[in-house]
Amino acid sequence: MDLDVAVIGAGIAGLAAAHELALAGREVRVFEAADHVGGRMATRHVAGFVVDTGAEQISTRGYPHTWELLRRLGLDDVPPIGRRLGVWRDGRAHRGLAHPSGLVTGAGLAVRARLDFARATRGLARSSAVDVERPEASRVGKATVAEFCAPYHRDVLEYLCQPVVSGFFGWQPERSAAAPFLALLGAIGPSTAWRAYDRGMDVVARALAARLDVTTSSPVREILAGPAYARITGDGTELRARSVVLAVPAPVARQVYVNPPEHERPFLDACTFTPMVKAHLMLDHRPESDVYLLAVPRAESRSVSVVLFDHLKHPDRAPEGRGLLTLIASPAVAPALLDATDDEVVSALAAEAERFVPGLRAAVTGSVVHRFRHGLPEATPHALALRGEFASRLGGVVDYAGDWVSLTPYSEAAVRSGRRAAARVREVPRRQHA
Predict the structure, then answer these.
(1) Could you tell me the pTM of the whole model?
(2) What range does the domain containing 338 cover?
(3) Binding site members
(4) Is residue 71 included in any domain, yes or no?
(5) Domains of the chain: total
């Protein structure tokens, strides 16, 4: 046997799994196709700018596994962002998105829409109807976001739910399920609880990788499972491992794992991902704003979903006197931009964002474009209906980790799934020798 445990993917899910296994005394090697760790929590350092290409923040609420890991690593001193979110409507930003104050100040919503949303979410909270770990058990589990919003004022969809699910997850509300979205709203709390790591959102990934045997630029092409081990084939290499944790997006797992058990295939096939395209613009000054993140509804823009002022999110994201702005493409244009050139992406998104940040294009001195072909799990009602059966039978020579395992698209779900995959792997030898 070449390896005890092979973890495929050095995102936060794979690194969390490897960390737990190493603490338990298992010999672990992590294989990462990219030339860096972090996955969808990666950061690039360019000319003094700290560019978060993936996740943007965490919360003091709804992240228990993450905070336990941070305390273990001595990284739990995470500063608050200190700014709120807004939504664009009628030519200006309205503060209060993702915060209870928005129900009072409006946050761009009509009065009836505020009352409708308060009534809907209050009912869900009373019945404990949504669970970030078991969203399929929700009484709204079969409804799309659009269907959940249908009985209420149109602003509930167009100026609250759609901007959030499209901007943060890349979802189209007519396709994606309401239950995971509502569960996350309840779990992570208001935007005043949100924080951003010093030195970039990949600080945890880098700290974990420094303690582990990680091989980057090492793509895995095929995994073939047997009763007691799995064969792993890469570029010119072939290894055997007693256990494998596939910590990659579900479509990638389905592609490389050639013989998954029959009962796993329906969910793996149904678990689709949405693409995400981000343009990070380096500016010659630091634009001021009442909000650090501006959600842009599709009714206001077809191409831009989010305008994020990184230098307001955390002061170390840009050098003194400079600014850093992130534009996130809307789901309507993201698929087409995956294959566009960097210049085409910057030109298209910056031209549109000029409405929200006047003088933007003239202030740009450089840019970084990042594309996630597999951005976030889409959580369609079809996939959600299959998730419970899939999750109830996890374990074996090949296991899985990632936020897609619970269909809740946030980094806490990735950390949690990695730790639980590690616990199942520790049981594999016992079952094999029983």
Answers:
(1) 0.94
(2) 273-377
(3) 32-33, 220
(4) no
(5) 3
